[in-house]
Amino acid sequence: MSSVFKNGRIFVPQASNHGADFAEGMIIENERISYVGSLDEITIPEDAKVIDLQSRTVIPGFIDAHVHILHYGQSLHKADLIGCTSLDEIRETIKSYAEAHPSIPRIFCRGWIQSSTNGVALASMLDGIDSRPIFVDSFDLHSMWCSSAALDEMKVHTAPDLPGGTIHRDENGRASGLLDESALMNLAWPYIESVTSIEDKLSALDTAVAAYTAAGYTGLVDMAMDESTWEILNLYRRDHHIPFHIGAHWLVPFSADQKANFKYVDRAIELHHQYKQPDFCIVGIKLICDGVVDGCTAALLQPYTGKSDPVDPIWPEDMLQEVVQRADSAGIQCAIHAIGDRAVHQAINVLSRVGTPGRRHRIEHLELTTSEDAKRLGQLGITASIQPVHSDPMLFKAWPGLVGPDRCKRAFAYKDFLDGGAPIAIGTDAPTAPHMPFPNLYNATTRRSALEIQSDNTVNPHFALSLAEAATAATAGAAYARFADGWTGSLQKGLYADFVVVDMQWTPEKLLGAKVCQTWYRGKKVFDS
C-alpha cells in the first residue's frame, strides 16, 4: 500500500550549511519512505492513497535523547510546584492537592525549584500541611524534600550516609528533611518503589506513552534503566503496542566497591545481547558523575560562591575509567552525566583514553564547560547530549549567585559544541522538565523562556542554535546517538516512515505556537489531533 503526501513542507536539513530545505511531497510504501521531492517529476501509483498536507510542515519523528519514561508518567499524577516562587505558595499548592485527593496514602509533589525557598528544605516547613507523608521532588530530580512523616516512614534517621550523597541532618544527627544524590537514589527511590503497586506503574506508563505519541515522538532513550523499570516495560509490552522505539542505558550507581559496579555493567552487557530488536534494547550504561548547580552538587573547577573548596566528582577517575573500559570492551555505549565543568573535564579525559572509535560514547547535560573542553568533544567524536529546556531563563535565576556572573557566560554553550564538530542530540530529561519538543527547540534557538513567555530575559544567546540545527539534533542527531540513524531519524528513501505533521511557522519566535496534527510511526498514523 502506497500513501502520497502532497502540498506540504517536508523538512530536509542541509548538512553543508546547517540550514533547511523543504520538499513538496513524500511517498511511503508500507513501513518505509520510498520518495521525497517534487511530485511533478514522478508517476504516482494508481492505487495510492493521496493525503493533502494543506501546507503543513512534516518533520522526522522526534526522538527524546534523554528521558525517564516511567518516572515521567508517575510525575503526571503528582502535585506540580514548578510555578511556585515562595514557601507560602508551595504550602498552599500542596494543601489544595491534598484536599482534592483525600484517599491517597501519600502526597507526592514535583517541580520544586530550590531557589524558591532559598535552598532551605526542612521537614518542619512541610509539617502541618497534612498528616500524610509528603515527598517533594526537586525539578532536577537530584534531591527530595520530605516531611517528618515521610522521613519516619522511610526510617532514614538511622540510615548511614552513602558515597556521593547526603542525608541532611540537624544538630542531633536526625534527618532534617533533605536527601540528595545517592541518598535519594539508594534510599528514597527504592522505598517509594516498594510502596507503589504494579498496577499504578502500568497506569503511569500508559499515560506517558499516550503523552509522548501526542507530542510527536517516535522514539526515546531512557537514561537510567534498572531492574524494576525494565520489568514494568516488559509487562506493558506484553499487552500493549508501544508506538515508538526505546533504547535504554542501564544505570550503574556509584559504589566504593568496584566489584559491585562491575556487576551492573555485566548485567547491561547481558541484556544488550539478549534484546536484539533495535526498537527495544539496552544500548549502554549510564554513569552519574556529579549533581546539579542549583543544589551546589555539580562538580566545578572553582568553588561555589562563599565556599572554600570545589565539589569533587562522584566517581574517582581511576574507577570511572575501569568501568568505562569494561563497557567499551564489550561493545556497548557509555553515557556520562556531567553538568559542571570539572565533571565534564573528567569525563572527556576518561573517554579520550578509553573510547573506541565509532562507539559513540556520550556526555549528558554539559551545562557548564570550558571552551577547550567544548572543542575536545568534536575532536574525540563524543556526542553532546543536551536538554535546552534546562537553559530556560526562569530556571537560571540562581546561577549568578552560585557560580558568579562571569562563569555564567560559559553556560549551555551549544553552539560551541556544534562548531567544534561534536554530534549533538537533543532530549528533555523529562520529568525534570516538560516533555514537549517545541518549547525545547524554542529554548535552544531563542535562549528565551518558554515558562515566562512575557520575559525578554535570555541566557547566552550567542550560543543559540539555528532552528534547522536544533530540529536536526532532536531527530537525526538523537537517532545517531543511539545507533538508529541507519533506519530512522530523517526523511529519506529507505528509512522507516517515522514523522510528525505540524501546523507551524518555521521561525524560532513562533515555535511555542506549533501544533502537532498527526504522528506516524512505521508508516501508520498513531495520533491524530
Tally the beta strands: 24
Oligomeric composition of the shown chains: single chain
Task: Specify the CATH architecture of the largest domain.
Answer: Alpha-Beta Barrel
User: How would you describe the shape?
Assistant: globular
**CATH-assigned homologous superfamily of the largest domain:** Metal-dependent hydrolases
Side-by-side strand order of the widest sheet: 8-15-16-17-18-19-20-21
Structural class: alpha/beta
Biggest sheet features? 8 strands, parallel
Enumerate the spans where pLDDT stays under 50 for 5 or more consecutive residues. Answer: none
Distance between the first and last residues' Cα: 24 Å
Number of structurally distinct domains: 2
CATH secondary-structure class of the largest domain: Alpha Beta
Chain-averaged pLDDT: 95
Number of helical segments with 4 or more residues: 16
Helix content: 25-40%
| Strand percentage | 15-25%
Radius of gyration: 23 Å
CATH-defined topology of the largest domain: TIM Barrel
